[in-house]
Structure formats: structure tokens, C-alpha cells
Specification:
The chain is α/β, with parallel strands linked by helices. Helix 7 packs across helix 10 and helix 13 packs parallel to helix 15 (about 810-820).
Length: about 900
């Protein structure tokens, strides 16, 4: 790894710009077993690479015997382990018949969950589920009426007065009736009990969620779709064992296909609420089923009426219209081996011959693991035999050797503390979507963040915090009566002033969103025309774009900057979200840039090549005039409907042709220009402002990655930079970027995280990856399963495929590696729609990390290094008016 990541600091930008294009190269793959199944074993590989497995060569074990379905199993489970170690569990399978068990699959599984109580009666888990079922009970509804006069409204000149309280509505008590009172907001409360025989798991390969849908009855008596849940899905946050109960709230964006009168509530009429119970598990390979949700295993329906005046009526019964539906699919017929945090299984897909089978499960244990649940599952509809095997897992030896740097320390008002970051999505996902008491929800989330050491929070609170901006996700008209998302983030920003966390400055979402011109015009009173070149994106070459972004950022700073974060370098980071392309299983695109940018690329090409002859020779093209050069012309559409995928070999601009590599280089230079202009404008008011660029897709902003590295994760780093127009060799050079953040769903190993963090910090850009630990999406490169796009995407010299693997990734080893190499530990906390949230697993891990980090801070070397850093000059805060939005916060 170290040999592959050269720092390249001595190279000039010009030298790099004329480097030869990368050539197709071999890549490491996950093998296919003789039974046809994929062997996905990243945890074993990492443990073997680091030497960790050697600890368990001659340890004392517990012998376990299981028998069922014509198979006997003998396994050896270590009696002791260290938290986060990958523990080997050797096993032997034999048949109890002379002829084996033919084609019936046999699975061997081990889990290391917090509780094994549910397995006393032989509970399945969602990696290989048994019967998934719930008993759903309606508890009642809450209706709220808007109080428009009580709302806080921003004023461009800061003349606004804070509102008395948040939220600005009158919420009724919970009422259980079949007639629901109409209102601007309505929430439904349900309780469900796990009535199946499978642990309902919120994360990783398995996963359970609810997907509510709303229908309204037409005058003709037909049911028509009318709304979806605000976050689309209702998530669970803990492991729910058979017999356990959970309560949830359901609310809707109502009015499908129209502009509804009650955007967040319901008007009078007859309605039907359909709740799909959805489980994520692997059957025959079909990745698209699981990418966002899973398979519907139960469908419940409940009819109700909405009236202007409430009425007492016994609610209609909830009717289960579909249960445990598998549509004839067999369970896991394509994975021979699978490993994620706390779960491991081997699937012998063609059964066991009379000769028997020997194998090893590799299980990563957690600090809280007390028992390993070992399972033998036989048959397509598996019959389960299980044993709960005690194991002593120690975590006392775990340590975090924090490396303080100027950019991973933040001033909390009294002292320097480690910078730990997360993102509040109180504006988009975590206010009224979570129930009728958003004030309590936001406060609890803030308290939870502080309890695990979060010291700075970033936000996407643009542009919907502005009341006058149309919110396209509701198709609503510009309004005067309500803006629950804007109100919510303002409440969070006020709340954070009490005792933290600090707030990262923010600019726009995304950088080129054309509504930034409307916001800047609202602030200044001067009309700004930003040309919309593609679906709400402005021309990146328009000089007004950087000025408009800086105007909005300055306005936000003037209002809330009193609580902005400052690092030990004296910098005040401002985040700009700016994804310009994707390399992901379901999205392979470069976003189009419009005619002005294309014309600039033609001029850039003239400057580089001098003549069309030189260009054509370099690109192997036959352009007859400069105006013919158009990277976006004729780009194809893939099977998912995404355009601009650059997959047509007949187009001179295709991955990874010399022409498209120049286009990507130019697109990155355009970023540099955008950010240089933005920062120059922003520093007119905040001289110590710096930038944190945030992207999506598992990007890492390091230079020097070898494009021929056989490691698929490093191939992803290299080629995703190019798809996104984020080439590190270009973007790092001007020194305008202090931090890089990403909504990271690629499960980089701790070794990779450590090396990438170390390299990025040395190159001057500090990583602050908002990792989605509860649900990473790895791409398993192999010869049989998945998308053929990865032969092209990773520039492989032989045909390969990429299979999406949903995996739970532990926080502690990742954060430890980041903190020890000078980076910023970070996590995605509240993206409930996109399946990136904090479950009980991540909460427990962050608490452990916080404890170990505190122990590190009192060691002599770390304490002295931090004490040597003087208190910052905070005179810049005086430029902020520190305007509050609410008088009462409790």
C-alpha cells in the first residue's frame, strides 16, 4: 500500500498535466467457489494481511455440536478474544446418510450481536432469515394546526425578531379514532411486535424497515396513490428480537402529483394507509432489490377517514393482505461466504457430499459480545439448529493514540478539543418527519452528539431554510404559512449556541444550484440572473456564481457565525457540497455543464495542443474544427435512465480515452477556478475562511494513487476522482482546500483508511469523511455476479463484474485510524431516506471511542502538544450579529 501511494509533492502541476493516460490493468477479485457462490471475505483478508489471525492459532476453544436436516456440525469457538478481532471458527460438516443431501443448500452462520437472548428458542437473523412477521397495532393520531403568525421569518437586513417558540403549530393530544381531524400536520402512531422467528436488524446485509404509502378514495370508489412517507422509509434503530415491541410515527408528503392544500397533512376524505414490511436479505442475485429497501415480506392495510371536526369512532382493523412473501425465491443461492461486522456465514450451495466439508467462519466480534450465536441451517427454506457459545471479549487493551494537528483541533470557547464531526439533517430528514415533537427530537439528537464527543456539526441547510425559496421536493408554491425544514434547522442552530457543538460554516447545496442567485438577490436587493444550463445548475463560468455563493455564505455567517468552528490553524471552515459525477453501481455519470463550459474546453484544448492536428494525433480523432469538440454530444443512457455515462467506444469521449481524461482534467481545473473565486470573495468579510469540499460516492482526495494498483478500493479512489472532476493533483495545488468530506459508503479497511488519511494530511488536505457505517455498499469485483460496468469503470484489462455488497462496518477501527493519522473522525447521523443513520451499534461504538480518546488526551505527549497551541484570535466573531430565531428553546 505504501508503495502505491507516493506523495508526488515534488512534481509540478505542468508535469502531471501532460502525464500519459492510465492503461487497462489487472485487478484483484473475489473468487467463485466450486459450488458457484461468491466468496466475499474482506475481513479475513484484512486480518491475515495485518497478522491479527496469528493470535488465534493455538487458543483454547469451546467444542460445539449441532445436528439437523441430515447434517452434523462440529465447530471450535475461541473462548477469549479482543474486541474488533476477526475470530476464526473452524467447523466440519458431515452427512448422516450414505448419499449426502444432494442439492439442498447448507449454511453455517455465526453472529456476535449485543444480545443472544432471542436465540434461546432458536431465532434466525436477517442474513439468512426464517419467518419475518410483525403484529401491527394502531395507537392513534396527532393533528396540528399552523400558527403562521408565531413563526420566525428571516429578513435580509436582519431586522427580524425571534419567535416565541418552536415549532409554530398547535398540536392536539394523541387520539385513537377511525376519524382523524384534518390539519396542516398529521402523524400516525403505530406499535409493532416481532411475531416472527427472526431478529429484526436495522443495518448491514440484513435490514428491516417499514415503507408506508397513502391512498385516497376517489368519488368513484377507486383507491389512488396520494402520498409517501416523508423520509420514504421508517427506520428502526435497534435489534428487535422475537416477542419485542417497537413504536413508530408515520407522516406523509401528501398530494401525489398535485399541489396539495395540506402539504404535510390531510384534508377531508377517505384514505387507506398501506405499510409494507421490508426485509433486506440475499436470494438469487438481484442487487437492485436491496439497494435502497429490500423484499416486501408483509403488507398491512388500514382504512380511515379524515374530517374537519374530530369524532370518536372505533378504528377499522388493520388487515394483513400479504405475509412472509418470498415469491418462490430461494434463500441465498449466490454467496458462498460473507463477512461483515458481527455476522459471518458460509453457504454450501450444492449441499454436502458423503465425504463431508471442512471450513472456517471468520467473525468480527464487538466489545459487547458475550455469546456467539452459532447456527446450522439446512434446506431452501432453512431449518435451524443453534447454540449460544460464551466468549470473553476484552476491550481494555484498545487505545486511541490521538495525533493533534492544527486542523483536527477545534476551539470550544475554553480549550482545544479534538474535532469530531457529524451532519445535522434537522432541516431535511429529522424534524416533523420523526413525530409531532420535533423540538424534543432535535434536542435529543444534539445531546446524543455531545455525549460521544461531537464538537462540530455541518449542515445542508440550503436553500430550504429561506422561506421564499420554492421547495421542489413538495412541488409547493412559495409560501407564507410554513417552512418546517427551515424552522427546524434554525432551532438547531440556536440550540447549539447553548453549549455546543460548534457549527461549520456553509455555502450552498450544491455549489452551482441556480437558486443561489435568488438568495443573493434577496440579501442584496439587486437582481442576479444565473443562467440555468441543466436542471437547476448554473453556468460554472459565470463570475456572478462565486459572488452569489459568497453573498449567501456571508449572510449566514453574519447571522450565525458567533458559533462557527475555528481550528488551531486559525481557519474557519466553510463547507461547499459539489458532486460533479459518480462512480457507483447504479450511477455512472458526469453531470453536464452546458455550452459556456464546452466552449471554454475548446479554448483550453487549443491552448494545450496548439493545432487540431496535434489534438487528433493525441486523441486518435478526426475533428475538422474546434467547434466540433463536444464531450457531451451523443453520450448514451444506461439501463437506469442516467444520461452522460460515457460508455460508447465509438464516441471519442468515453472512459478512459485520452479525450475524456483531458476533459476530466479541465473539469477539475474549473473547480479550482470556482473555489479560488469563491474564497477570494468570501475572505472579503471573513479573512480566515477556508473550504471543506464535500462530495458523494466514496471519493478520497489524495494524489499519487497508482491507477494500476490491483486493490479495487484504490482503483475506486483514482477513477472516482476523474468521474467527479476531483483530480487531487490539480485540486490540491492552489492550496484553497483545507478539508475534504464525502458521504462515504465505500467500506475502506482500517489499513486503507490509515494510509489514505496519512497521505491526505501530508498533502495538505485533511479528511473529514461522513461515513455511513450502518450501511456501506462495497463493490465486490468478481467474474460472475453483478454489473459489467466495472470492467470499464476500474479500467480492467480482462472482463470483470461488480456485485453490490451491503455491509455493516465498525466505527471504532475507522475512527482510530483517522484520529491517529491527523484526520477528523466523522459520521453520517440522520440520512433516514438514504439509509445512513446512527443505530444502537454506532452509538455504543462512538461512546467507546470517546472514552478511549479522553484517555489519550491526558497522556503527557498529547496533553503537551495541545497545551502548546495558544488560544485563537476570535475577533472575527464580532462581525456576526448573533441573531437568534427563537426566544424559548426548552
Amino acid at each position: 500500500m505504501k508503495n502505491k501511494l507516493s506523495l508526488l509533492l515534488s512534481f509540478s502541476l505542468t508535469t502531471l498535466a501532460w502525464a500519459e493516460e492510465p492503461k487497462p490493468a489487472p485487478i484483484d477479485t473475489y473468487p467463485i467457489h466450486a459450488d458457484g457462490g461468491l466468496i466475499y471475505d474482506p475481513l479475513r483478508r484484512e486480518a491475515e494481511r495485518t497478522g491479527q489471525l496469528q493470535k488465534y492459532q493455538d487458543v483454547e476453544t469451546t467444542l460445539v455440536h449441532l445436528q439437523g436436516g441430515g447434517v452434523t456440525m462440529e465447530a471450535h469457538v475461541p473462548k477469549q478474544a479482543t474486541a474488533y478481532d476477526v475470530v476464526p471458527i473452524p467447523y466440519t460438516l458431515r452427512t448422516t446418510t450414505d448419499s449426502g443431501i444432494g442439492s439442498h443448500p447448507v449454511h453455517v452462520s455465526a453472529t456476535a450481536f449485543k444480545s443472544a437472548d432471542g436465540d434461546k428458542g432458536g431465532a434466525y437473523d436477517l442474513s439468512i432469515p426464517g419467518r419475518v412477521a410483525i403484529d401491527l397495532k394502531y395507537l392513534g393520531s396527532v393533528t396540528a394546526k399552523n400558527l403562521p403568525e408565531a413563526r420566525h421569518r428571516l429578513a435580509p437586513d436582519f431586522s427580524d425578531k425571534p419567535a416565541e417558540r418552536y415549532p409554530a403549530y398547535d398540536a392536539r393530544d394523541l387520539v385513537r379514532s377511525g376519524v382523524v381531524e384534518a390539519g396542516e400536520y398529521i402523524w400516525f402512531s403505530f406499535e409493532f411486535t416481532n411475531s416472527g422467528d427472526t431478529v429484526l436488524d436495522p443495518e448491514g446485509l440484513g435490514g428491516f424497515l417499514l415503507e408506508p404509502k397513502l391512498f385516497r378514495q376517489t368519488p368513484e370508489g377507486k383507491w389512488e396513490p396520494f402520498g409517501i412517507a416523508y423520509n420514504r422509509y421508517v427506520r428502526i434503530f435497534r435489534y428487535i428480537y422475537p416477542g419485542e415491541t417497537e413504536r413508530v410515527w408515520v407522516s406523509f408528503m401528501a398530494g401525489a402529483g398535485e399541489v396539495p392544500t395540506h402539504r404535510f397533512g390531510l384534508g377531508p376524505g377517505k384514505y387507506k394507509l398501506v405499510i409494507d414490511s421490508v426485509a433486506r436479505y440475499e436470494a438469487e442475485f438481484d442487487w437492485i432489490v436491496n439497494i435502497w429497501s429490500g423484499r416486501t415480506v408483509q403488507k398491512d392495510e388500514w382504512e380511515f377517514e379524515v374530517a374537519e371536526k374530530p369524532a370518536a369512532r372505533e378504528p377499522a382493523p388493520i388487515v394483513t393482505v400479504q405475509s412472509d412473501a418470498r415469491d418462490g425465491r430461494k434463500l441465498n443461492r449466490w454467496l458462498h461466504s460473507f463477512q461483515e461486522f458481527m455476522t459471518s456465514f458460509d453457504g454450501h450451495l450444492k449441499g454436502i457430499s458423503d465425504a463431508g466439508v471442512e471450513g472456517i467462519l471468520y467473525l468480527q466480534v464487538a466489545p459487547w459480545t458475550q455469546k456467539i450465536s452459532l447456527k446450522l441451517l439446512t434446506g431452501d427454506e432453512p431449518q435451524l439448529q443453534s447454540a449460544q457459545v460464551p466468549i470473553a471479549v476484552e476491550s481494555a487493551s484498545l487505545a486511541v493514540n490521538f495525533q493533534p494537528t492544527d486542523r483536527n483541533l477545534i476551539w470550544n470557547g475554553d480549550k482545544w478539543v479534538p474535532l469530531i464531526a457529524t451532519q445535522t439533517m434537522s432541516d431535511m430528514r429529522a424534524n416533523i418527519q420523526m413525530g409531532p415533537n420535533p423540538r424534543g427530537t432535535i434536542r435529543r439528537d444534539r445531546e446524543a452528539m455531545l455525549s460521544v464527543g461531537v464538537s462540530m456539526v455541518t449542515t445542508t441547510a440550503m436553500p430550504w431554510m429561506y422561506d421564499f425559496i420554492q421547495r421542489p421536493y413538495t412541488h409547493a408554491q412559495p409560501d407564507a404559512g410554513s417552512n418546517p425544514n427551515g424552522d427546524a434547522v434554525r432551532y438547531f442552530l440556536d440550540l447549539a449556541r447553548e453549549r455546543g457543538p460548534r457549527i461549520e460554516g456553509w455555502i450552498n447545496y450544491p455549489y452551482a444550484r441556480s437558486t443561489i442567485g435568488d438568495i443573493a438577490a434577496w440579501v442584496t436587493g439587486e437582481k442576479i440572473n444565473l443562467v440555468d444550463v441543466f436542471h437547476g445548475e448554473a453556468n460554472l463560468l459565470d463570475p456572478a456564481l462565486a459572488k452569489a455563493n459568497a453573498t449567501a455564505a456571508t449572510y449566514q455567517f453574519t447571522r450565525w457565525g458567533d458559533n462557527y468552528g475555528q481550528n488551531a490553524a486559525g481557519e474557519v471552515p466553510f463547507s461547499v457540497e459539489d458532486s460533479r459525477g459518480w462512480l457507483r453501481l447504479d450511477v455512472h455519470i458526469r453531470y453536464p455543464k452546458g455550452p459556456q463550459v464546452l466552449a471554454a474546453f475548446q479554448e483550453w484544448s487549443k491552448s494545450k495542443f496548439g493545432s487540431l492536428e496535434n489534438l487528433n494525433n493525441a486523441w486518435d480523432t478526426s475533428f475538422s474544427k474546434w467547434e466540433e469538440i463536444d464531450p457531451e454530444h451523443g453520450q448514451s443512457t444506461n439501463e437506469h435512465g442516467h444520461k452522460f455515462v460515457y460508455a460508447d467506444d465509438q464516441n471519442p469521449f468515453h472512459d478512459w480515452s485520452p479525450a475524456v481524461l483531458d476533459w476530466d482534467w479541465f473539469r477539475t481545473e474549473l473547480r479550482v477556478r470556482n473555489y479560488t473565486d469563491l474564497l477570494a470573495s468570501l475572505r472579503e468579510t471573513i479573512p480566515n475562511a477556508t473550504l471543506n469540499v464535500r462530495t458523494e460516492g466514496g471519493n478520497v482526495l489524495v494524489a499519487g494513487v497508482d491507477p494500476a494498483d490491483p486493490n479495487p478500493h484504490l482503483r475506486h479512489v483514482f477513477y472516482s476522482q476523474r468521474r467527479c472532476g476531483l483530480i487531487a493533483e490539480v485540486l490540491q495545488a492552489p492550496g484553497t482546500i483545507a478539508y475534504h468530506s464525502d458521504y462515504t459508503t465505500m467500506p475502506y479497511t482500517p489499513t486503507e483508511v490509515r494510509e489514505l488519511t496519512r497521505t491526505a494530511v501530508a498533502q495538505g488536505v485533511t479528511p473529514m469523511w461522513l461515513a455511513q457505517f450502518n450501511h456501506m455498499r462495497d463493490t465486490a469485483i468478481n467474474e460472475r455476479y453483478g454489473s459489467k460496468d466495472y470492467t470499464r469503470a476500474y479500467n480492467v484489462d480482462q472482463p470483470v463484474k461488480g456485485a453490490m455488497m451491503h455491509v455493516l462496518t465498525p466505527v471504532f477501527p475507522w475512527w482510530k485510524a483517522v484520529a491517529e493519522e491527523g484526520g477528523v473522525p466523522a459520521i453520517l447521523w440522520q440520512d433516514y431516506e438514504c439509509d445512513g443513520f446512527v443505530s444502537e451499534t454506532q452509538m455504543a461504538e462512538m461512546q467507546l471511542f470517546h472514552k478511549k480518546l479522553e484517555e489519550s488526551l491526558v497522556t503527557a505527549a498529547v496533553a503537551e502538544a495541545i497545551a502548546a497551541k495558544t488560544a485563537p484570535d476570535e475577533s472575527w466573531r464580532s462581525r456576526s450579529k448573533a441573531k437568534r430565531s427563537f426566544i424559548q428553546l426548552d
